[in-house]
UniProtKB/TrEMBL annotation:
Keywords: DNA-binding, Transcription, Transcription regulation. PANTHER family: HEAVY METAL-DEPENDENT TRANSCRIPTIONAL REGULATOR HI_0293-RELATED, REDOX-CYCLING DRUG-SENSING TRANSCRIPTIONAL ACTIVATOR SOXR. CDD domains: HTH_MerR-like (cd00592). GO terms for molecular function: DNA binding; DNA-binding transcription factor activity. It comes from Floccifex porci. InterPro entries: DNA-bd_dom_put_sf (IPR009061), MerR-type_HTH_dom (IPR000551), MerR_fam (IPR047057). PROSITE patterns: HTH_MERR_2. Residues 1-69 form the HTH merR-type domain. Transmembrane segments: none annotated. This is MerR family transcriptional regulator.
Amino acid sequence: MKIQEVSQKTQISKRNIHFYIQEGLITPDIDSGNGYYDFKEKEVQQLKLIQLFRNAQLPLSTIRFILKEPSTTSFYISQYLHTLNQQKKYLEKNIESMNYILHHLPLQIHFDNLYQVVQQANIPNQKEEIENQKDYSLITRFLWSRFIPEGIQNDFHEFLWAKINRLAQEDSTGDFNTLSNYLNTLDASEIETLFTDNYKHYEFAVGLDEQGCLEYALKLEEKIKRNLKENQLIYIWKQDYYSFYLPNIRLYDSKNLQDIIVQISPFFKQYVKNIHFVCSKVYENKKLMKEMEETLSPYLDLHQYHHAAIEAFGSLDTVQNRN
């Protein structure tokens, strides 16, 4: 269909439709005969979705990545909701402060009594208010939402998910906070890359049968050997070990958290089973494990987190482009 018809269907101006095309939010085909855009029903639906998200004031960059990779939606919506809640709490405190000033100002206002009233109003510092409001549900979604493609299905799963978020808030290791700080340094495209690459990898690992696990173990050994010869990958590992890889490793290796997630997601249960089998085979290669320890020490703990560390370093070449 032509752009005029699309504009009528969506109530979006032709100018804005062209803008969304230029921004890469939609990519309609071009009719080779006349050079005009030829819109399909999918593009119409995308435009309607863009309009709804814009009504909610989501940034265009966020909408672009959601359209490109729908599996990231829960993360981005959680992130945006956290931002809205931060703004709401700040505005509520600010309203309270302004009301205080309004109701405590004397009839005759001069600088001295104005200064005194404003000083007593407890006007919030927006930057401090935002920094003090931590929401680790963003991190739990980043870590585990990809294992729950159909979302939370019942009240019991909702209870378990709430328990995970509570454990994140009560985390004494600081891993959730460290990972949260790291993710805040990434832009939207880097987060999308993490989501996309990791989801493809998890989907691959879940689909392995016993023979596939054995073949992947051999492949993982070769990837580790290759990575140990790549100075750039070793640099990335060491640079991000304490801020990203180690917190990830410890959280994924947490028996307490694993026991909860497997009750929600058969997908995660199968992933853990297959990866543990694969990494136990790789771990039998003592020569390779010694080489890892000698090359990466002290940025490695094969004794306590050998399965997760093997998997993380072996997968490093799939995420190197985000650095």
